[in-house]
Write a structure and sequence with these properties.
The protein is mainly alpha-helical. The chain has a domain at 126-261: Alpha Horseshoe (Serine Threonine Protein Phosphatase 5, Tetratricopeptide repeat). It contains 8 helices and 2 strands, in the order H-E-E-H-H-H-H-H-H-H. The protein has helices at 2-123, 139-153, 157-170, 177-190, 194-207, 214-227, 231-244, 249-261; strands at residues 126-130, 133-137. Strands 1-2 form a two-stranded antiparallel sheet. A hairpin with a 2-residue loop joins strand 1 and strand 2 (133-137). The longest helix has 122 residues, at 2-123. The radius of gyration is 66 Å and the shape is rod-shaped.
Length: 262
């Protein structure tokens, strides 16, 4: 009896031990299975990491290459910009030189045109008014007459006498001859060449008796005669002046002079 109980007890114990072992075996097997899964997961993760790293390296290399290419492009662009700046500066300098050349050319052309116009003006007759008489004056004659008149106004009577005498001799048909004779006579009067002055004053009157200066010329003839101590001739000249030009200032002066001579 006791043996049977003991046997059952032993059998139960053995069964219990077997179950325990089986449980441990199951747990161990499960643990091994979980380790394999973990290892697989780790391997997959590592593979992914490696792939990501590889992709990252590729991307990094691509970015580096792009940056390098961009740097080269920027460098090339900068060089092009510098070249363009140089070309622009060169063109600006060329434009400035061209502008200066054009300005100089225009100035020279203007000066040439003015000089040409001046030369043509010297050759072409121009309107002149002398002693109330208007006429077309020869430029050369006008210049010579004005030169002589300027000398007279400056008080250089000897030079004026020579200039006016030369003018009358060279240009006997000039419109300036009558006023030139008047100033020539006055220059000769100033240098006390009274006889020659009388000749030129009378030449003026004979050439243009209605000229604005005719009455003054006749009064000057009387003055020259008085300087030559020819009172008789002077009185006759004054009387002729009063008769020929009664309404002039010269006639009034002649009346006063006649009164003083009686």
């Amino acid at each position: 009896m006791k043996r049977g109980v003991f046997a059952r007890h032993a059998l139960g114990k053995a069964v219990s031990s077997g179950l325990i072992c089986l449980c441990f075996a199951s747990v161990a097997h499960a643990g091994l299975f979980e380790d394999d899964e973990a290892r697989k997961a780790i391997l997959e993760l590592r593979q992914r990491v490696d792939l990501l790293k590889a992709d990252s390296d590729v991307i990094r290399k691509s970015i580096s290459d792009e940056n390098m290419g961009l740097g080269k492009s920027l460098l090339s662009l900068q060089r092009q910009i510098e070249l363009l700046r140089t070309e622009v500066a060169t063109l600006r300098g060329s434009n400035e030189r061209l502008a200066k050349e054009v300005a100089d050319l225009q100035l020279r052309q203007k000066e040439h045109t003015e000089a040409l116009n001046e030369r043509l003006g010297r050759l072409e007759p121009s309107k002149a008014i002398v002693d109330g008489v208007e006429f077309l004056a020869d430029p050369r004659e006008k210049a010579d007459y004005e030169t002589a008149l300027t000398a007279f106004k400056k008080g250089d009577f000897a030079a004026a006498q020579n200039l006016f005498a030369g003018f009358v001799s060279r240009n006997p048909a000039s419109q300036y001859v009558v006023p030139a004779l008047f100033w020539l006579g006055n220059a000769q009067y100033a240098t006390r060449d009274y006889k020659e002055a009388i000749i030129n004053f009378r030449a003026l009157i004979a050439k243009s008796p209605k000229h604005l200066r005719a009455s003054e010329a006749l009064l000057s003839v009387a003055n020259c005669q008085l300087e030559l101590k020819d009172s008789k001739a002077a009185r006759k000249t004054l009387a002729d002046l009063i008769k020929s030009y009664p309404d002039t200032e010269a006639a009034q002066a002649a009346k006063e002079r006649l009164a003083s001579l009686k």
